[in-house]
Amino acid sequence: MYKFKEEYKTGIDFIDEQHKVLFEIADKTYNLLKNDITLDKYDKISELIEELKDYTEFHFKAEEEYMESIDYKKMFTQKIEHDDFIKKLSAVDLTRIDSHQDESIIHILQYLNDWLTEHILENDKLIGQ
Predict the structure, then answer these.
(1) Which of 9, 39, 111, 122 has its CA 20 to 30 A from that of 129?
(2) CB 122 within 8 A of CB 8
(3) φ and ψ at residue 83, rounded to 5 degrees
């Protein structure tokens, strides 16, 4: 379902490779939603949120270091958006997830989808120009 496409390329190889991993995490999340065999998905949802948080922290740090190295003019705006993304992940209510598992996965996917498409297409692609 979630695939890194040509249109998401920034022209900066390491950023594109890291974005591919974010799409892979989104795809794992989607596959968990569609998994009808696993009835209790709480542990897997928690693991995916942690994986996403850990990876985005790594990715954002690398991206921000690159932007700083090229004196990217919109770095401050990027940093604010990155920090907001991490705050949103950190604020996830795990007790709510336990009682609303599929709904929680859908919410995570919607947020991830919006982030991946909008942030990459509207902000990250500008870094490579």
Answers:
(1) 111
(2) no
(3) -60, -40
Encode the chain (129 residues) as per-residue pLDDT tens digits.
788 999 999 999 999 999 999 999 999 999 999 998 988 999 999 999 999 999 999 999 999 999 999 999 999 999 999 999 999 988 888 888 888 898 989 988 998 888 888 999 999 999 988
- CA 40, 44, 101, 49: dihedral to nearest 10 degrees? 160
Tokens matching residue 113? 């989808």
> Three-state SS string across 4-36, please?
CCHHHCCCCHHHHHHHHHHHHHHHHHHHHHHCC
